[in-house]
Design brief:
This protein has 284 residues and is mainly alpha-helical. The chain is 63% helix and 10% strand. It is built from twelve helices and five strands. Helix 2 (39-56) packs across helix 4. The protein is globular, with a radius of gyration of 24 Å.
Length: 284
């Protein structure tokens, strides 16, 4: 006997929980989905959902960095087409295994005896991939539950198998693992540019802008002050360290012109140290 949980409003759950519940429900039904030509295609379909989930929850960059770190030190001589082709094949085989594993996990862990109704009336999911998953669920709900005088697409309630918090946490970990291998195409494009420019790939942490770089590099997150160790170092040493540790995304000028990158770093580091020094004097 199935037990139905009373309709839960979309906005009463975190975006993470909604997406994980939808993902678990979808994966638990993939084995019986006839829209795929093979089990391999079913397994690889989990990669698409994993990547979209990681992007939607701002976790994709972290997984991309983990993937990129494995290629540190690769040069134009060692990053040849045959190497890239072999890596693609290796990662795809691994993704198929990971896909089978996460499908099996979802089948075992969703609670098929308890369904959850998610009420999306007045709310939308902007991500096209998850919107597509929802539209199919709306139609399933409408055909199975609504009376015939209601068109299925007018229903904004999705009925899914429920899952526990532990299942969602474990599922998220598996999605991250898939993401580390599923982001390979983006990683290869990224590597090709850097190796083409410098002849070698040096792994660096990725940041969106200078503010993020300065906050991560100079500021002690525990108290909001300048890191005591960094405060004792010469500015030129800090500039060299920061330039070797971070890359600012969407800043092609700094990739092409490393000296311009070091120059702006020197300016921002000096101004940040000076600002904090002034604030310290005022507080004395």
């Amino acid at each position: 006997m199935r037990h139905k949980i009373s309709a839960t409003r979309f906005d009463s759950l975190s975006n993470r929980d909604v997406l994980l519940k939808l993902t678990a429900n979808r994966f638990s039904k993939l084995s019986s989905n006839l829209n795929f030509e093979s089990d391999e295609d079913r397994a690889l379909a989990t990669n698409i959902t994993a990547i979209e989930y990681l992007k939607e929850t701002s976790q994709y960059r972290r997984q991309l960095q983990i993937c990129l770190k494995n290629f540190a030190g690769r040069t134009s001589e060692t990053f040849r087409p045959e190497f890239v082709s072999a890596v693609r094949k290796l990662y795809q085989e691994h993704l198929i295994n990971l896909g089978h594993s996460i499908i099996e996990f979802s089948e075992q862990k969703v609670n098929r005896k308890k369904t959850l109704d998610l009420d999306f009336r007045g709310s939308e999911i902007s991500n096209p991939h998850f919107s597509g998953i929802l539209e199919n669920l709306f139609n399933e709900y409408g055909e199975g539950v609504l009376s015939l005088d209601h068109a299925p697409w007018s229903c904004r309630i999705a009925r899914i198998y429920n899952c526990s918090k532990d299942t969602m946490n474990r599922l998220e970990g598996k999605l991250r693992t898939i993401g580390q291998f599923g982001c390979l195409d983006d990683a290869i494009s990224f590597l090709e540019v850097r190796i083409g420019l410098h002849g070698k790939y040096t792994f660096k942490l990725l940041v969106d802008n200078l503010d993020e770089l300065i906050n991560d590099f100079l500021i002690d997150s525990s108290n909001g002050h300048i890191n005591k160790v960094k405060a004792q170092k010469p500015v030129d040493e800090l500039v060299k360290e920061a330039a070797g540790k971070y890359e600012i995304l969407n800043a092609p000028t700094y990739l092409v012109n490393p000296e311009a990158y070091k120059s702006i770093l020197k300016h921002r580091i000096k101004s940040t140290l000076k600002k904090f020094a002034k604030n310290q004097l005022k507080s004395v």
